[in-house]
Amino acid sequence: MKPAAFLVLCVAATAIGCHRYDFPETPTGYHEFAYVSNGKANTVSVLDLVYLRPDRTLQVGPGPSGMAVNPVRDEVYVVNTGDSSGSGSVTVIDTRKNTVAFTIGVHRQPYSISVDRLGRRAYVANSGSNTVSVIDLERRREIAVAATGEAPGMALIAPDMRSLVVTNRASGSVSVFGVEAGDAIGPDAKVQPHLRATFPGCPGATDAVILPDSSKAFVACSSGHQVMAINLAADPDTWAARQNPSLINDHLLALLDVGESPVHLAMKPDGGELFVSNFGSDSISEISTYTNEVGTTYPIGNKPVHGIVSGDNSALWVSNFGADSLSLYSIDDGKLVSSLRTGSSPDVLAFSADERLLLAADARSGDVSVIRTQGKLGPSLLTILPAGASPNAIVIKALTAKN
């Protein structure tokens, strides 16, 4: 069957779904779902990625925005931003049953959530109350609150679980907190994050990434044209810190000039480079995380808004919000490979577990474009699945049914 014919068949059969033609067979009992938060519908769409069909729609709180997957528990978390007059919440979704299991209250206008690598704690940036909440995911309750700068947009926990990086959009700053290392978490563990450092000079601080070794953070200064690079304090007992005592302190490394309105940072899985989506200049900028230097800035598409790098570090996909398309950029060759049409105003992106599918949330058309990333004829649009009004986040969870 030709790819174009399969697309027509898949779209026509959306209601009943269609198995992914010419894909490897999935093991017995294997399930994989995409969870899509619909900001203006107060829902989460659950999409079956094995049969490429809608599974169900879950009612959550008002204004769902950020989402996160628990790496250990079969749970997905949805931040409900609410409105300006009331507190927000976090909805817990049981991914084995695909039902809402619990709702945890936080503070005003929460925006994002980050889960530590042990799946025990989550950190929620409360944009309307200038705080970050610490959530115990086993007991399903808030256990601490810390003050941040104005309008925190992202609270990102480092892989070593020693540093919490918070981007403060309104105050144009970055707050770095120390937290109890995950391995030390127990009944007597300290739960209150302590502020270690604040870095001003990052107007419209929004997106952030932390290197896999937890040594550095990079923050997009979206109201300007720079990315801030920060050294994160190392454990003083490590060999590196003993050899270089300056590493035990948080400090500013550089302000890197990129394109206009950098809105998103996509890091290679190996941590060696990151790519900046410059919304205002229709380009991407490449940054070496080792030297803290900007390399190539490359024209990519109209209003690039989100990027994602393949697991083998070779390919960068970028959603062009103003062009209704995705661009595929070869990192190895340093050039644009292809462009694919999507629904209206593609935004956030997510890979399926095997990366054979790439999902793009189409913000204006209220659906999800499903891209086949591999094939004899190259990448292609496989199908478009319905979501809800203003989809703004996608996370993926795969699991195998228990006997």
Description:
The chain has about 400 residues and is mostly beta strands. It contains 2 helices and 32 strands. β12 and β13 form a beta hairpin. The protein is globular. The N terminus is likely disordered.
Quick recap:
With 403 residues, this protein is mainly β.
How would you describe this structure in keywords?
32 strands; mainly beta; globular; 2 helices; 403 residues
| Topology, number of strands | 32
Radius of gyration: 21 Å
The major beta sheet can be summarized as: 4 strands, antiparallel
Distance between the termini: 35 Å
Helix content: under 10%
Q: Mean pLDDT, rounded to whole units?
A: 91
Form type: globular
Helix-strand makeup class: mainly beta
What are the low-pLDDT stretches, counting only 5+ consecutive residues below 50? 1-9, 11-16
Strand content: over 45%
What's the total helix number? 2
Largest sheet, order of strands side by side?
A: 3-2-1-32
Write the layout of secondary structure elements.
Elements lengths: L2 H10 L17 E9 L4 E6 L4 E7 L4 E6 L5 E6 L6 E8 L4 E10 L1 E6 L5 E6 L4 E6 L4 E7 L4 E6 L5 E6 L4 E6 L15 E6 L5 E6 L5 E6 L4 E6 L7 H5 L7 E7 L4 E6 L5 E6 L4 E6 L4 E7 L4 E6 L5 E6 L4 E6 L4 E7 L4 E6 L5 E6 L4 E6 L7 E7 L4 E10 L3
Antiparallel strand pairs: 1-2, 1-32, 2-3, 4-5, 5-6, 6-7, 8-9, 9-10, 10-11, 12-13, 13-14, 14-15, 16-17, 17-18, 18-19, 20-21, 21-22, 22-23, 24-25, 25-26, 26-27, 28-29, 29-30, 30-31
